[in-house]
Each structure stands twice: as C-alpha cells, then as structure tokens.
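[Discussion] Sanity-checking designs against the backbone

I'm trying to build intuition for which residues belong where. Below is a structure token string of 490 positions. I'd appreciate it if someone posts a full sequence so I can compare it with mine line by line.
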C-alpha cells in the first residue's frame, strides 16, 4: 500500500514501531496541562517580584545615584520587552507545529536573562537582562494560555482559566517577600531561587504531551472526554492506516499544520485586521489594560499609603498584601465556574459591579482594620474580573477565520504589558503630586472598570436561560418569512 502524506489528515494510527509514551494519560490530561501553565505564569511573576525589592539596594552598592529613576527604567525595560515581543511570538506560534518547543525556548531565555542580570557589573547589562526577561515572559504567557485553549473543551474553559488566573495571585504574592528575605543573605540568593523555579517549570513543560499528539495513541472508537470541542482551532479528524515502512513522528503532528488546505494560517496583516474588527477582542483588551493599570497603580501607591496613614513597616505592608490578593484564591475559580454556567457577560458585570464601590470606599480615610477589609474585597473583585475575560479571548479565536489562540492571547498580553508600563508611573505621580492623590487614584480605578459594563452588556457571551429563549425566538422570526413564501412558490 502506498504511503499517505501526514499533511492530508489530522489523526493517524501509528505503526507498532512507535512506542507509546509513559504516563500518556496524565501527561496529556487537562488538569496536568493547566497546572503546568499556571506554574509557569506563577513562576514568571514570582521571578519578577523576587528582583523588584532588591534592585535599588544593588544599584546603590554599584555606586549609582538617583536610584529610584534608574529602577523605574529597569522596570520599563521588562515591560517593553514583553510588549514588543508579544505580537511576533503569537504570529509565529500559529505557523509552527507545536507549543512545547517555543515554550521551552522561552524558559531557556528567561533563565539566561536571570543569569545576565545577576552577574552583570553594569547598568547596561542589567537593562539587557531585563529586556530578555520580558521577552521570555511573553512566550510563557502567550503560548501557555494558547496551550490551555488547545486542550480544554469549550464548555469548561472558564473554570480552567479561573484556575490559571489564580496563578497571577500566587506569583505576585510570594515574589517580593521572598526576595526581601533572601537578599539579607546576599545579592545572589534571590536569583538562585528564581533559577530553581524556572528549572522546575522547565521540567513540567518537558513532561507535557499536547492533545494532538496524545490522540495518535487513542483507538478510533474510544471516547475522548478531555478533547476540546470542535472549533476553528480543533479540526475534525479521521483515522487512516499508515504504511509500516513510513512511520510518522508524532511530535510533527499538530492541529496547526495538518489539514493545511482547510485551515491555512492568515498573513500577519489579515490577523491584525481580524483582531481589530472583533468587538470581543477589543473589549477584552480594554478590560485587560484596566486590570493591569489598576494592579500596577495600586502596588505603587499602596505601600506609601499604608506607611503615611498608619505608620506600617515593610513587614506589616507585606502582611497587608496577603489580604489584598488572598481573596482571589476564591474569586478567580468562582468566576471561572460561573463563566461556564451563565456566560462571561453576567460574570464580568457582577465582578465589576462588586469592584467599583469597594474601589471608592478604599480611597476614603478609615481605620486600618476597615481599610484592610475594603482592600480584600477590592483585590478579590479585581481578580474575579480576569477569569471571564481570559475565557472570552479563547472564544474569540474560535469565531475568527484564520485566527488562532496564540493570536488572541498575544493581544491579551500586549494590553497587559502596556498597562504594566503605564500603571505604576501614573499611580506614583498621582499619589505624589495630586491633592488627596490616593482618593483620586481609587476613583480613577472605579471609573475605568465601570465604563466597561455597557460594552460588556452588548458583546460578551450570555449562557442564561433568558438569553437562550431570546435567541430561539429570533431564529424563529427569521425563518417565518421563508415558511410563508414556500406555498406561493409551489
């Protein structure tokens, strides 16, 4: 029998010469893939946070002056590397066969950048290391989120994205305190921990088996309960025998390359136009920007606020941050679950409606205890907004011809990267230079998020029963004219 080209079908039955990988079931499971991606994002944010509190002291040791300004430029270098590299990473990821290889390369770049930053004797070397870290982080975020969407069924995407968004909290929570403690023992210690975290994450990514590869070892008649639901990124597949003389390497099989005629990648300009014409992508980017801006502005000004108003030490501020982000361990999975049940529309609106009043209340001068309570609700609601928005980016990719998950999550990452540049700067300037700067900042946070409610009402997905009834009636009304015309035509 003649050989069948691998590109002509999207599912193959491997020859007996190809050995089944050990641990195939759990290594390709939705839970394991989500844990690995979440660990990667948490690791990246923890690495970022480990370095932030120790850099000013290092710059002083190196003999630099105006340390605050120089530290700001180093933070900018990270955000700039992340923002500039995100679009090409997303574009080229959708044109190649798998997610794992570029993810591993991103981890290697991240480790190399940490080493450069740790051993550099000059500010220029530290700047280059920070840019490299931003590029590596862009790969971790974009490719990791796309990998989750490749693997998870559409009707469960919200809860898995809720679990992933919890990793944002974990990374932001553990980084700065550990960095400060380890720095007391020496400059290199925070970086050694950072490299250890990256290494553990690297091992996890080596273990992952992507869904399109694991299907090659599944019988054609076996149910695939973990397989994602059909969409633009999930082509239907058929089984076909292979010539034993022409075995296929399963690593080269991919939903991105097989069936090329059915789903040929669009050009960069066509992808950009599709993304900019999608209301869901635009709204998701606006909300993501607001999220990043608020998180950065809060982190910049909150330490000063707690110190000036309540006389909190750095240790007390660190404990207060636990309240600020601890609520997200409940809020993120909860809003992810609700997204799957009732849709992103009402979940997002509910989270924003909770966030807005607590943002305003947080700006009012109160006792320390009441302030911490307001801060806990503020942080939980802010984190809860992210899960449905991340899920909507995945839904948008399924509905845009020629657009893949890495494309839409590049837009997500770009919006967050720009906000990470702008938010801390605006937060610090408003707090220092505007009368009642903290109150003004909190009102700004409330207005930014509150303005997203009307477009969310229009464009976000609604899975409620009322919406289903409305859509059913709309379809019937559209079909009625055709039914009336058919007797006349006969």
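Best answer:
Here's mine. Compare freely.
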């Amino acid at each position: 029998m003649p050989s069948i080209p691998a590109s002509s079908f999207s599912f193959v039955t491997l020859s007996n010469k190809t050995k089944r990988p050990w641990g195939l079931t759990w290594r390709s499971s939705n839970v394991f893939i989500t844990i690995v991606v979440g660990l990667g994002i948490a690791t990246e944010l923890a690495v970022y946070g480990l370095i932030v509190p120790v850099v000013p002291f290092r710059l002083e040791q190196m003999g630099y002056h105006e340390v605050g300004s120089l530290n700001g430029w180093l933070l900018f270098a990270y955000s700039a590397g992340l923002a500039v590299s995100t679009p090409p990473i997303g574009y080229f990821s959708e044109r190649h066969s798998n997610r794992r290889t570029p993810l591993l390369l991103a981890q290697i770049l991240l480790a190399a950048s940490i080493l450069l930053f740790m051993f550099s004797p000059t500010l220029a070397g530290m700047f280059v290391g920070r840019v490299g870290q931003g590029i590596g982080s862009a790969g971790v975020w974009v490719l990791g989120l796309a990998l989750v969407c490749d693997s998870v069924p559409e009707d469960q995407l919200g809860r898995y994205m809720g679990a992933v968004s919890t990793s944002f909290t974990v990374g932001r929570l553990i980084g700065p305190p550990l960095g400060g403690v380890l720095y007391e023992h020496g400059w290199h210690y925070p970086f050694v921990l950072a490299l250890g975290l990256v290494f553990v994450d690297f091992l996890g990514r080596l273990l992952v088996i992507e869904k399109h590869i694991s299907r090659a070892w599944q019988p054609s008649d076996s149910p695939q309960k973990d397989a994602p639901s059909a969409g633009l990124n999930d082509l239907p597949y058929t089984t076909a025998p292979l010539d034993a003389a022409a075995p296929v390497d399963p690593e080269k099989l991919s939903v991105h390359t097989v069936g090329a005629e059915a789903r040929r990648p669009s050009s960069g300009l066509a992808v950009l136009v599709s993304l900019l014409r999608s209301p869901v992508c635009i709204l998701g980017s606006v909300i993501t920007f607001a999220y990043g801006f608020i998180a950065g502005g809060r982190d910049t000004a909150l330490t000063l606020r707690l110190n000036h108003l309540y006389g909190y030490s750095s240790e007390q501020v660190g404990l207060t941050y636990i309240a600020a982000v601890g609520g997200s361990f409940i809020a993120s999975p909860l809003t992810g679950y609700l997204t799957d049940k009732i849709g992103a529309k009402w979940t997002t609106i509910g989270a924003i409606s909770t966030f807005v009043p607590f943002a305003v209340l947080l700006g009012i001068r109160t006792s320390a205890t009441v302030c911490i309570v307001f801060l806990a609700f503020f942080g939980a609601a802010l984190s809860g907004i992210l899960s449905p928005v991340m899920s909507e980016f995945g839904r948008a990719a399924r509905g845009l011809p020629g657009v893949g998950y890495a494309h839409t999550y590049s837009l997500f990452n770009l919006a967050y990267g720009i906000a990470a540049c702008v938010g801390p700067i605006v937060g610090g300037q408003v707090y220092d230079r505007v009368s009642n700067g903290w109150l003004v900042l909190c009102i700004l946070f409330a207005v930014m998020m509150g303005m997203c409610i009307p477009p969310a009402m229009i464009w976000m997905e609604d899975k409620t029963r009322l919406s289903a009834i409305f859509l059913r009636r709309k379809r019937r009304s559209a079909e009625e004219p055709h039914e009336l015309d058919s007797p006349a035509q006969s």
